[in-house]
Amino acid sequence: MNRFLKSALSGTVIVLTMSAAMDNASAQQYRRQGSVVFVTPNGEILDYMPQGSGYTRDRSGNRVLVDGYGNIIATEARARGYYPPPPSRQVYGRDAYNNDPYYSEDPYGDTRYSERGAVTGSIPRDASIDRQPLDNQPYPENEGDYASIEPDQQQPQVTQPTRPAEPVITLKNKSKSEIVALQVFLDRAGTSPGAIDGRMGANVTKAIYAYEQMTGEKLDPNNTDAILEQLRMSGGLPVGTYTITPADAAGPYVAEIPEDYAVKAQMTSLSFTSTSEALAERFHMDEAFLKELNPGVDFTVPGTIIKVINPGEPKTSSVARIVADKAKKQVFAYDASGNLISAYPASIGSNDTPSPSGTMKVDRVAFNPGYTYNPKINFQQGANDKVLNIPPGPNGPVGTIWIALSKPTYGIHGTPDPSKIGRTQSHGCVRLTNWDATELAKMVKPGVVVEFLD
Question: Looking at the UniProt record for this protein, which Gene Ontology cellular component terms does it annotate, in alphabetical order (predicted)?
Fold first, then answer.
């Protein structure tokens, strides 16, 4: 690693061109706002000024709206003539990658990116069983335990001094396969990028800085060949193959997950809804990306060979202190010597239900917990006015893990929506992906210090 980690990360702002914004804007409806508009990275028109944001300039002189950490929120563009192209289905295959030097038979690059033949073989079924089991068997302890959310006085909001923004990380014309390699590298290192989807975003940026904090080395995310070399030596290449088993196809699964908590309470389990959802979670993937990587595949057929991410083995250290950084939307786990063990993207609190400040401790850990909803002391969900006991499952309100804290009502837990972690807010608690929450839960014990950093 030393031969490529010594390059400093670029601090320049990514230049968001009009064509890139238009490519990401299909099926969106836009409206003009004066002579210029501000376009988000996913092609939407921004019609408000986010709190704590400010302006800078890109290399073309256009204004760029960034948050307190230098992450791009939106880029200035002329309103006149800014109309999205007609919706079209994006094609992934040889035609989509004719100009990609990394493309071969694998739709996400050449053979550097996928497991083939005797190079590393296929990923065994139990490769990530500690991260998130798929056989729907109960966890080894605290089966059926319920996350108890009780009333608590909300903390007054205090304006905190702005911390210095970390430099913006610039990727130089990287293909999706190269970004996947970077995400897998970070996942194996213990600095989770969240759900792996082949996209460069805030979760990947935060994971890169956490990696540098953990190792004391600079990571050059543009040096794909060096990253791939390290992946070969730490568990194999980023993409591998997996054969769907009869147990995978059988489930059990539920037809759908209702929004209404009263309907949820009548179910026996909030299991996965499909084989693809279950497999995506096992391999730390966004479900849409799993399907994109395997176009036309029927995931319900046993014996089907699919392409999947080859994720990292779970950490097994002992955590002595946890820091929940509310501004960064990230959780850091340290050992007794103060060394960073792992870092996870997180959704932490909201304006309506803020997370607490200060220090508390881990009270208990529940695997596969149920959830107790009380409308008098929780947020209001629909028209429900009675206490409801919602059954366990990966699609439950707190996912597969509940790490209860010494301050009543608060905890660190999983989620039914892993791809939204770090991008949405929570009801005051700390929300991680199910696999990250499971890894953290197995490294903590009652009494571990948890510090909320404003």
Answer: extracellular region
Helix (H) or strand (E) segment spanning residue 203: helix 202-215
How buried is residue 130: exposed, middle or buried, by Cβ count under 10 Å (0-12/13-18/19+)? middle
Per-domain residue ranges of the chain: 18-78
Residues in the chain: 454
429 catalytic per annotation: yes
Instruction: For residue 284, indicate whether it is catalytic.
Output: no
Taking only the tens place, the pLDDT of each residue in 420-447 is 998 755 445 899 999 999 999 999 999 9
Annotated catalytic residue, options 77, 134, 388, 429: 429
Q: How many Cα atoms sit within 13 Å of 386 on the Cβ side?
A: 7
Q: What is the DSSP string of 302-347?
A: TT-EEEEE--PPPP-----EEEEETTTTEEEEE-TTS-EEEEEE-E
Distance, CA of 379 to CA of 252 (rounded, Å): 31
CB 206 within 8 A of CB 212: no
Active-site residue, selected from the candidate residues 282, 413, 431, 442: 413
pLDDT in tens, 385-395: 788 888 999 99
Please compute Rg for the chain using Cα positions.
22
Question: What 8-state DSSP symbol labels residue 194?
Answer: S
Instruction: Round to whole Å and give the CA distance between 257 and 264.
Output: 7
Q: 360 has which bridge partners?
A: 450
